[in-house]
Amino acid sequence: MEEGNFLKSLNKHRILGIDTSPFIYHLEKNPIFSGLTLRLFELVEKGGVRAVTSILTLMEVLVRPKQLHQQKVVDDYGFLLRTFPNLTLRSIDDGCAERAADLRAAYGIRPPDALQIGTAIVSSATCFVTNDEKLKKVKEIEVLVLKDFA
Questions:
Q1: How many of the other CB atoms lie within 10 Å of CB of 94?
Q2: Is this model's pTM higher than 0.85 or not?
């Protein structure tokens, strides 16, 4: 599949949940996936869709720059996630945690994945963008896997 099909799939939705991996691929200019993530984040930035990601994304994208003592990168990534147009960086509340527990009980997915998807669902997202094929088994939300479009 290709970028055009990816955009068509995204455009079926008003609100997207976005996992950490698309952010990392985009920020680190991953040679395989950055074309797709560019389209994704352009669509969000221009208001074609709204997006949500949980606060876990902030933690996960900051780990590598912190390990490398790259404070400017830490500051830049944090600023970007907090201020990106049409993107909500959502804290995990009781509703998100309960939905995550439902997902773990039903599918046995890892806690961070359950929290990310639970946050997306509670935020009214109808699609979750990830690169984890194991999450396709979740039926409460459409799961788009970047590898399927690369």
A1: 8
A2: yes
